[in-house]
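yo, Twin transmembrane helix small protein is done. seq:
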Amino acid sequence: MILKTVILILLAAVVVSLASGFYFLIHDRSKTNRLVNSLKVRVGLTLIILLLLAYGYYTGEFQPKPPWVYSLSE
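structure:
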């Protein structure tokens, strides 16, 4: 359960980084690297999410079953 929460928090951070990158793309007229830095953060967070998903699958916390396999009585 904690792994799923961490992944959701990281996904929210990716969306925030995406929004900040869009803001820097539109409003930043100077020659700073803020747009590139936001892309680096977004790629790093995405790699962490992928590693956590692989870890969850490897440890058995995430099962490759479709949701319609589970019955309502469980």
